[in-house]
Design a protein that fits this description.
Two copies of one chain form a homodimer.
Chain A: E1 10-17, H1 21-29, H2 31-37, E2 44-50, E3 57-63, E4 69-80, E5 84-88, E6 104-112, E7 115-123, H3 127-135, H4 138-156
Amino acid sequence: MSFKPDPKLDLVLERLIDVPVELVWKAWTTPELLKQWFCPKPWYVSHCEIDLRPGGRCYTVMNGPNGESFPNTGCYLEIVPNQKLVFTDALLADYRPAGQGFMTAIVTMKKEGKGTRYTAIALHNDEAGRKKHEEMGFYEGWGKALDQLVELVKKLR
Amino acid sequence: MSFKPDPKLDLVLERLIDVPVELVWKAWTTPELLKQWFCPKPWYVSHCEIDLRPGGRCYTVMNGPNGESFPNTGCYLEIVPNQKLVFTDALLADYRPAGQGFMTAIVTMKKEGKGTRYTAIALHNDEAGRKKHEEMGFYEGWGKALDQLVELVKKLR
């Protein structure tokens, strides 16, 4: 069953990108690659751990140019290679409740011509959560990160 | 990878029961059956919905003898028929964050002789969560519910 976003609660970034699905998948699931594209510059990821199984932990530390440091822990929920990756910060490793939860992300990729139809959906608990994420710069941030992903994987071909 | 409970954070009910795994699975995944055993009497479940897929919603309404009514919404995470069922209240349908989360449950069943080695683990975010659940009567409550499950499915054979 494919998920239909709720415009009141969810944010969606959809774009046709000119790199193949296999490289998009690789960029999302390889720590050394993810570190290079996941944060819009000048922010950067200093640390990344990916335990790629349902219930596995995802862990990144995002850093800002003025010494900011934000660790993020989440949990992978669904892993369909080259198609779909779902994770949430509402859970920790082995599905342990995080006590709170800001968002679940559903990232899908589908071959289209020589490129990829890329969709990233952020699901929030309520309208305030969606609004906060939008104000934090969801579209610009996830868009810039995707630009960086495309630029990076083009060098891998 | 099988999960190792953390004694500081998790509660575990393990028991050998004299009914086959297939019936235990059926009792956990059939709304009309779950309603009959899930709450220790005189509490009862008035409503139960089971969308049995990863990301599917589980919904029950528990009622007390003095008119208490507690709706519970959760999300299925892993479904391995006759072996393992994982769900959490940290997520709603389609993995949407619930905004909070009290526990994740990992229920496993394994054929042993003519019966079933039954294990239910409740994972909490912190020690306070585990303690609260223990004080709410985890062992007695889940134990009585399991007695009711066994009694019920014996009638189905």
